[in-house]
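Good morning C.,

I know you're traveling, so I'll keep this short. The sequence:
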Amino acid sequence: MFALARLVVIGFFVLTVIYICLSLWSRSVRRGKLNAEWQEGGHEGSYEAFMDDGLRDYDRSLRRKLILGVYVIPVIIVSVIIYLTNFH
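The tokens, ready to paste straight into the viewer:
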């Protein structure tokens, strides 16, 4: 039982680090795309307002929610491996 608890705690920590890195990387990519779009021109308002609106849209996007798969997919894979190893 201690081994399972250790796996869960360490796994959660590692997955959290991966989630944070992926989230920051994806947000910086989106920021770069918004910056390139601003450089092309044709936008009204200030640069900061344009970036805030674009990043607010990104926060509500499907891509942002899919990054949560970092937690779901490894848990499912480990659960299947444990099941197949012990009960099949």
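Safe travels,
E.
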